[in-house]
Amino acid sequence: MAIVLGKPDVRGLSAAAGALREWQQEGAPMQLHPGDLGWFWRFGGETAASAVRTWSRDGRILAVGLIDGPGLLRMTIAPDARPDEELARQVVADVGDTERDVLTPGKAYVEAPMDAVIQDVLAQEGWVEDEPWTQLRRDLAEPGRRTAGADTGAGLRFEVVGPELAGVRAAVQRAAFDNSTFSEERWHVMAAGELYADARCLVAYDEQGHAVAAVTVWSAGPGRPGLLEPMGVHRDHRGRGYGTAITVAAADALRELGASSAVVATATSNVGGVATYKAAGFKVLAEVRDMRRDA
Length: 295
Description:
The chain is an alpha+beta fold. It has two domains: 3-132, Aminopeptidase, CATH 3.40.630; 137-288, Gcn5-related N-acetyltransferase (GNAT) (Aminopeptidase, 3-Layer(aba) Sandwich), CATH 3.40.630.30. The protein is built from nine helices and twelve strands. A twelve-stranded mixed beta sheet has the order 1-2-3-4-5-12-6-11-10-9-8-7, with helices on both faces. Helix 4 (85-96) links the parallel strand 4 and strand 5. The protein is globular.
């Protein structure tokens, strides 16, 4: 059967997210998560759908990709299809053909499972390894402490974000990431998306009542790894352990949502970020690299 490149509409996102949810398994390497699609939904359902690509055979989705910004395809492959060379060669061919509407010409990046044959095919086609990323995981098997309304770690109080705190959540995001365009309106768009049903946002307040950190967590369903995406500390309140404290709170929130573990990834060059996650009880899973095309 031929491998078919798909470009789902908003309704089709459910099937892509369902495949991603099914592929999240304990013991497997970290990979594209339904929460990545959920976070992208802040730009609207139609925009999120336009950024998703699927590869299917005989009606079954075998690979899902998210065009996460210009020149970057973040993708994963069904665990049993990762040795499938026909699939790998079709994906690489589609990525390399601008008429297939996956990546634009010029420099580009592909994030794909390190244990899949697509890594070898990309290398054969001239793609090279890019800068390393560190993946981390925290086991959620042991009971944790409550988050919302509780004073835990670094003297912080954590609140679950609803519509009334959307502006606060967005303001912390912009103060944590220099180039962020997140807004109260985009929070409402994201929260109205179907994937946010498995998510939760938290804001941390210090003893003076200042909003100092924020995080969003995404469950993939009971007994599956959940994702932190994103976590940030307000630029005016760094260096006080707030990142570690809200990361612990994020793990607790995922536990309450039924997740078996919490996973996160950050650039290895972000030494402070890696240290923060380790201090919150996360252990390094692996160091991985995107594949890069220079022309």
